[in-house]
Amino acid sequence: xxxxxxxxxxxxxxxxxxxxxxxxxxxxxxxxxxxxxxxxxxxxxxxxxxxxxxxxxxxxxxxxxxxxxxxxxxxxxxxxxxxxxxxxxxxxxxxxxxxxxxxxxxxxxxxxxxxxxxxxxxxxxxxxxxxxxxxxxxxxxxxxxxxxxxxxxxxxxxxxxxxxxxxxxxxxxxxxxxxxxxxxxxxxxxxxxxxxxxxxxxxxxxxxxxxxxxxxxxxxxxxxxxxxxxxxxxxxxxxxxxxxxxxxxxxxxxxxxxxxxxxxxxxxxxxxxxxxxxxxxxxxxxxxxxxxxxxxxxxxxxxxxxxxxxxxxxxxxxxxxxxxxxxxxxxxxxxxxxxxxxxxxxxxxxxxxxxxxxxxxxxxxxxxxxxxxxxxxxxxxxxxxxxxxxxxxxxxxxxxxxxxxxxxxxxxxxxxxxxxxxxxxxxxxxxxxxxxxxxxxxxxxxxxxxxxxxxxxxxxxxxxxxxxxxxxxxxxxxxxxxxxxxxxxxxxxxxxxxxxxxxxxxxxxxxxxxxxxxxxxxxxxxxxxxxxxxxxxxxxxxxxxxxxxxxxxxxxxxxxxxxxxxxxxxxxxxxxxxxxxxxxxxxxxxxxxxxxxxxxxxxxxxxxxxxxxxxxxx
Length: 618
Description:
Elements: H1 2-21, H2 44-52, E1 58-60, E2 70-76, H3 94-103, E3 124-129, E4 134-139, H4 153-163, H5 183-187, E5 197-199, E6 205-209, H6 229-232, E7 256-262, E8 266-271, E9 284-290, H7 295-300, E10 306-307, E11 324-330, E12 333-339, E13 342-345, E14 350-353, H8 362-370, H9 374-381, E15 386-388, H10 412-421, E16 442-446, H11 454-466, E17 471-474, H12 482-491, E18 500-506, H13 514-517, H14 530-539, H15 547-564, E19 567-580, E20 585-587
Parallel strand pairs: 2-9, 2-10, 16-17, 16-18
Antiparallel strand pairs: 1-20, 3-4, 4-6, 5-6, 7-8, 8-9, 10-19, 11-19, 12-18, 12-19, 13-14, 15-19
């Protein structure tokens, strides 16, 4: 019912804004920009704190475990599982990533501290040597793969040789990996191995030698999730993506083992009795993908023990559940808009900027960012659990935010002014702004399908852009399956039809943006420039090991992005997880001991008990 009223409320606001915006621009048939929301100028950081204060961030319930019970885990997604569960270096889907975490396919060997830097409470410890630019990891626990084979640091050594192999087509061979001594010689075929990786004789330590250490490396900035070498060294790199060890029969070192897969929909797992921190109480688990609109009813009926992400759009209907608890946590996720500005050169591994692309003019980009009222979207549609983004930095890295920058707040008058100043003053017969040379300007927007929200979010954005005179249409006239769209953006390097795209991104704990927005396939905007590249490099300079120097380097980058806007975060959110009352313990805070991707001896999946035979119902 709430979705109906929300749709009506937004539609009414859009229509009522027509009179207020009359004469400010817009082509034939364009609807006025949405009127400002009721927000009172609350800063995004205050909005974040206010939202978090509404929920516990972890739970700890008493009760003994009931043997023979099955844990039911729901993964909110409009797209099916891709099925790439084994080996995180191949995974590009957050949905698949949840399953990979359960089996230890993407779990780091190092733990994290509460500030998201590397810790020493995991199965390995670490040491940075700034004088010699080295990083050493040493196993401090006896770890076994789920097939019983001992895990050693040779597994991680082989993983790096797979990532750096010229036939590897995944997304993980990025900035810090390329700084390992000798790795580019290996990648280019000039060397048979990576000289900057040294194994100890007992295979329990691995030392990385870098060109230089960077501050971002401390923030989970070095890849520490191994593949099982005894399996993957016998598979050609070009064939790994289609291997059953990546698909439905992966071998991991996590608390659970995949027993059966229903492609795209569900996974049946059993506990790993050889798990390093002890066999889990939970004997069996079923993981299902669930459409967002089904989640409230599913939680009320006891279908799931936990839903990893409860859609904020349905929160108002279920704000006081009796059989489950909402756990709220700060999120590394953000929503963003990006502009397609070039191509990717697969031979050099570099993005190449194209000044002739449709969105190459920064005035056009900045105007589009000011045209949409994300504050209103967050308040009306998401119950204040989403809000306009306040920085280019992810919301967990508040100390690195330059809050003196204005960002891109909703301001349609400013958006029109920016377009006029940029020279976009000519109009076609329909009233749409044209390119600077007078040719038609039609902007193709690529959007992943989200059935629960498409009828609201798409017209809301398009009408806002129409109101400043921009003719924005859906690419190919429709939304697209999210897996297809992300593969197109990441791997179709010649696609010139997509001009802008919007996406939700999990930033991770490392503040350095080069893994997402540098010279990598994941930088689907393809933006680059000499100044931008230099600013990214300053984040990794030895001098940036000084916290104040690092902070200023991030400030300089944010100032550049404010001016050029090749992409921009649009909304932050807190993540809501729904936890049934029979679950004994749950940690929602990312980076804390026991969070799904940060297991320790005392906290993690292995300590969770189910205190009733079935999930409680409302």
